[in-house]
Write a structure and sequence with these properties.
- Helix content is about 35%, strand content about 20%.
- By secondary structure, it is an alpha+beta fold.
- It has one domain (about 5-85).
- The strands form two sheets. Strands 1-2 form a two-stranded antiparallel ribbon.
- The relative contact order is 0.17.
Length: about 110
């Protein structure tokens, strides 16, 4: 993810993300933006942190140091949506295998 996009996402919920490296493509930035805004709106503990953001098996993975039903539901929704969004450009995409590697790409980025 481009540094300027990471900084924009960090600015949404700085106490939770700090200087976390966003290990995914720019196409998922809107999903992450919406997720961070929704998490920030919850009444979460002051020590709430996002511990990792990455791609795994073609989908977004988002890890935190705190869990409850509301947090889990928001994360599950974002992770599910990522399977239909190209990780690189944000256009509609689908999970495809290239060898042993799964990724979510649109026809153009594939």
């Amino acid at each position: 993810m481009k540094l300027e996009v990471q900084k924009e996402l960090d600015s949404i919920y700085p106490s939770a993300t700090g200087d976390l490296y966003f290990g995914v493509g720019d196409g998922w930035a809107p999903l992450l933006r919406d997720l961070l805004i929704a998490l920030k709106a919850l009444d979460l503990p002051p020590n709430f942190k996002v511990t990792d953001i990455k791609e795994k098996y073609g989908g977004l993975r988002f890890y935190t140091n705190f869990s409850n039903d509301a947090v889990d539901d928001l994360i599950d929704q974002a992770e599910s949506k990522s399977l239909d969004v190209c990780e690189l450009c944000g256009e509609p995409g689908e999970v495809k295998a290239k060898g042993y590697w799964l990724s979510t790409r649109c026809a153009k980025c594939r």
